[in-house]
Design goal:
alpha/beta, four-stranded antiparallel beta sheet, 8 helices, about 25% strand, binds adenosine-5'-diphosphate
């Protein structure tokens, strides 16, 4: 069973969604994400990457097609599907007066995880924020905030972690740090999916790359073969 199965996914934004009313953002996209690896979803701005991620996250309704996360259909088994995935969004959204520890505890509460089973300390250590446990989020650097976002997405111990453009607009050093963290999580058994518009990032990190452009899948290959094509 694949980690994620995407079958003929179609998204037409309605007039009520704003600027791109009637716009076909996904034109029947199908692919599987195998378990255990780092999978790259590559494409230029506007290709449909965020739309796809947001559908998996349950934040955007699809127009047609289907998807399964860890074997759970996103419509018929929405709750289990959502519990099987952790999403690291592009935008950093924390209450500035919450501490990293509180951010993780609140998220655990949101998932109904009993106090004894929470792993906030462990997660802070994994993203190297133990020393910032009780600092206000507003005092954290951009890199620390991004690492906290990753910890927040792992609170419910999902088998799959999806990162939406994790390194967009970050400097070289922070990019390296985030790559290292993603690789570590993968080595611990988490299936990783990341969207990016940097080919070099996908090449460096991912063993398999799917490319979408204008809402269509134009390639889905092991990285080695893809590079060989270029
Ligand atoms: P990417 O993440 O690859 O940059 P998106 O999924 O954000 O691409 O966007 C795909 C297309 O859908 C773009 O043409 C974008 O303008 C359009 N789009 C995205 N979100 C909305 C929305 N809420 N309403 C209308 N059109 C949208
Ligand atoms: P629900 O639909 O179950 O009410 P929401 O989508 O409204 O859940 O999410 C509530 C909060 O939990 C938000 O802060 C959201 O960002 C976060 N959240 C929900 N699902 C995930 C996930 N899979 N990974 C990370 N954060 C999530």
């Amino acid at each position: 069973q694949p980690a994620i199965r995407i079958d003929n996914l179609l998204k037409r934004y309605g007039a009520k969604d704003g600027d791109g009313g009637g716009k076909l953002a996904l034109k029947g996209v199908s692919f599987d994400v195998p378990q255990g690896g780092i999978f790259g979803l590559l494409g230029p701005n506007g290709a449909g990457k965020s739309t796809l991620i947001n559908i998996l996250a349950g934040l955007v309704d699809k127009t047609d097609g289907s998807a399964e996360i860890w074997g759970f259909d996103i419509d018929r088994n929405r709750r289990n599907a959502k519990r099987s995935i952790g999403i690291v969004p592009q935008e950093i959204v924390f209450d500035p007066f919450f501490t990293p520890f509180e951010v993780l505890e609140n998220q655990a509460g949101f998932y109904g995880i009993p106090k004894a089973e929470r792993r906030s300390e462990e997660l802070l250590e994994a993203v190297r924020l133990s020393d910032k446990r009780d600092a206000y989020a507003r005092t954290l650097s951009g890199g620390m905030k991004r690492r906290l976002l990753i910890a927040k997405a792992m609170v419910h111990s999902p088998p799959i972690l999806v990162l939406d453009e994790p390194t967009a607009g970050v400097d070289v050093e922070l990019r390296r740090q985030l790559w290292e963290l993603v690789t570590e999580l993968n080595e611990q058994g988490v299936t990783i999916v990341l969207t990016t518009h940097y080919l070099e990032e996908a090449e460096e990190l991912c063993e398999r790359i799917a490319i979408i452009n204008h809402g269509e899948l134009i390639a889905n290959k092991p990285t080695r073969e893809l590079i060989g094509m270029a």
